[in-house]
Amino acid sequence: MLFGLHPHAENKPQPIDFWEALWGNLMRTLDSGTMGGDAGPGFRAAMLVVTIGGVIIVASLIGIISSAFDSKVEDLRKGRSRVLEQDHTLILGWSSKIFAIVAEICVANESRRKPAIVILADRDKVEMEDDLRMQVPSPGKTRIIVRSGDPMNLADLEVGNPHGARSIVILAPEDNPDPDSVVIKTALAITNNPHRKRAEHHIVGEIEDPSNLEAAHLVGRGEAHWVLPHETISRITVQSCRQSGLSVVYTELLDFGGDEIYFTVQPDLVGRTYLDAQFAFADSTVIGIGSAGGVRLNPSADTVIGTGDQLIVIAEDDSTIKLGTRGAVDESAISHLAAAPSRPERTLVLGFNSGLRTILRELDEYVAPGSTVTIVADVETPPLPECANAEVTYRRGDTTSRAVLESLDVAAFDHVIVLAYTNLGAQRADAKTLITLLHLREMADRKGIDLNVVSEMLDDGNRELAEVTQADDFIVSDKLSSLMLSQISENRQLTEVFDILFSSTGSEVYLRPSDEYVRPGATVDFYTVVEAARRRGETAIGYRIAADSHNGERDYGVTVNPRKDDRIAFAPGDRVIVLAED
């Protein structure tokens, strides 16, 4: 219009108004084919210029939009977008324990609404997602969200939204020579974050070296609960070597898939005694009382439950914790057989890792004076602690060598502990352990003896292979550590419970001969077993059937938290599982 150019029709110019000209130019800008019907040389030239300009503009816009889209997709692929979830479990770091932790928390989340797990680690997001899909194929209703970043970096930490997390799990890196420094610095980034929430965080992390625990407590400021995996596994190994089946009991208590430990408030039991509480539940087992003063496991039977006190119970689920009717006790079936006196013990340790010193210290707390410990490992003589009750000797040798094992007179030992060489890596270490166990089994079969063997495994996937060796217990270190971290992430009060259970002081789990509680041949319900244990100052929590001790389909004979009205007849060799001081 400005230059007097108009479209032609029948070789005559056809004037148009401003808005029609603007619309026509816009159409030619967006669609170059529009100018195909134009007529008139001047008008065609003008529209050609408009169309070419439009092609350039549109192409530029498409390029800008495409570049921005590709950049956003790349950011998403790298896991750099901020998490919007609230009330989620945040896992910081990556190690082989993460798969068991994620699987357990997924089971615990079944009763939650829209649960989520967020993982923030300094690895490629796609690789992490692929590993998780392979190792945790069935997460149930839980959404697993993966982000890539350094948990020690404040900016990267914000990606995981720690301020909205229900709990935070900090994993120690496996490829770092000083993993504790990484864990402590990550905790510091959370507790001293300038954008942190006012409420307390619920943090649980693992510390490899006990000497770093004090620094970890200073950084955690009461918000963090720390697990010492090596110390704990060493203690469980010692306890299990003296009591066949104990590792199965601990796995049952730590695994969300079976019975686990809960805290519950029962106003109807206020003013009643601990013994009354034990008899008040038919399908839950009371093991202690939690109060403002702390946790008490296996307290005195006449301990009175106060207002605000919580009962610590073993139950299948918190929804199953219900008061019932007290059952009767069969007084005539209760045994008065005295416990056998302690005697010196001989223990053989095959293999070596950093937990050996802790094992020796813990073992010295349990055994009677005059006991002996013989260590055989294919390493230079390590520094050994001073022991008051046990005489320790060391011998260098290849623990996979049949000749070495034959020379030890294995049948003369009361307990055999096979340790994993953790410095070799999980698969090589477990391979050496398997070879050692196969030799021990063949030697026991040939001599017609029953060896009490406890073995440490690093990879739970190798446990099924190791079961053919018929060892009494398998301590899968990574799995047990993962289960503890998962349990504490769901309930911070369990920290104190585990500290007591896995220590040589206070009440611990014991498997004791059933004939010390119930007369042989008598058929009783578990109310009677509870009363028999009470008279010895103990809390009964289950039993083990010796005939099923090597049957994995029957949980190796272990039953934790049986219904108290179910009746059972114990056979020779069966055990009652109790909480006791000693």
From TrEMBL:
PROSITE patterns: RCK_C (PS51202), RCK_N (PS51201). Residues 344-476 form the RCK N-terminal domain. InterPro entries: CASTOR/POLLUX/SYM8-like, CASTOR/POLLUX/SYM8_dom, NAD(P)-bd_dom_sf, RCK_C, RCK_C_sf, RCK_N. SUPFAM superfamilies: NAD(P)-binding Rossmann-fold domains, TrkA C-terminal domain-like. It is a multi-pass membrane protein. Residues 248-329 form the RCK C-terminal domain. The keyword DNA damage does not apply. It comes from the Bacteria. Keywords: Ion channel, Ion transport, Membrane, Transmembrane, Transmembrane helix, Transport. It is found in: Endomembrane system. The chain crosses the membrane at residues 45-69. Belongs to the castor/pollux (TC 1.A.1.23) family. This is NAD-binding protein.
